[in-house]
Amino acid sequence: MPNHKPLVWLPACHRNLDLSDPGGYTVLADRYAAAVCQLGLQPVLYPMAGAADVPDLLPLVDGVLLTGSPSNVEATHFGASALETDMLDPRRDRLTMALVREAIAAGTPLFGVCRGLQEMNVALGGSLYQQLHTEAGLLDHREPEDVDLDVQFAERHEVILEPDSAFAEWAGGTRALVNSLHGQGIKRLGDGLVAEARAPDGLVEGVRVASAKAFGYGVQWHPEWHHERIPFYQRTLGAFADACREHCRERNGGCR
Ligand SMILES: N[C@@H](CCC(=O)NCCCC(=O)O)C(=O)O
């Protein structure tokens, strides 16, 4: 039995931090890694991993957490053109498009948060609204600018949860309040995804992977934000952590 905690792969972002370094930087918001640690799991990064490395690396981990990011999934992945204003991350896109499909096929627990949900949707053939706030009938789902993080991540709207879904179980009912920090959103649902949570404007904000052999969920909100004091977020993350522990036991005959 290995003497380590279940390992969770968090694909990083790649940014030019504007320090005149043409090599760029690998970036991961501590918030996600800290939440993984608080769940008793060990976050791991493979900074240079590309799509071709996924078959070698996926068997080494017990779960995959696709984090949020200010960058947008490039619209060329769903048959549209990127907007001039888009902040893009083509390396992350290339990795996560492959990772989503292979994690589902391999039965590795998979959880997508915000950009991560959008990646799951696009990897499975779905499309995104590129600017929700320009769409008639849809809410502006972006966070307020130039305010404290506590205000940016404050609960902003309800989600309506499918009765009998895991979301309803985690929320203890069919409605929950969530934060909202995104400009893109699901337009056409990816193949094999089941919509189980919707914003009041009808936008799909929570999905289940129908064929998942382990945990396979994505959410548009941020359950990692102060999950320790919000039972809905805590139960969602707890279910992902339980699935990672189970996968670790199956993979290794046990785990810490
Ligand atoms: N850029 C996409 C995804 C939005 C998203 O993931 N926001 C999280 C921002 C905070 C963080 O880095 O965790 C969109 O705008 O829809």
Automatic annotation (TrEMBL):
It catalyses: 4-(gamma-L-glutamylamino)butanoate + H2O = 4-aminobutanoate + L-glutamate. It holds the Pfam family Peptidase_C26. PROSITE patterns: GATASE_TYPE_1. Its EC number is 3.5.1.94. Pathway: Amine and polyamine degradation; putrescine degradation; 4-aminobutanoate from putrescine: step 4/4. InterPro entries: Class_I_gatase-like (IPR029062), Peptidase_C26 (IPR011697), PuuD-like (IPR044668). One of its GO terms (cellular component) is cytosol. GO terms for molecular function: gamma-glutamyl-gamma-aminobutyrate hydrolase activity. Involved in the breakdown of putrescine via hydrolysis of the gamma-glutamyl linkage of gamma-glutamyl-gamma-aminobutyrate. Belongs to the peptidase C26 family. This is gamma-glutamyl-gamma-aminobutyrate hydrolase.
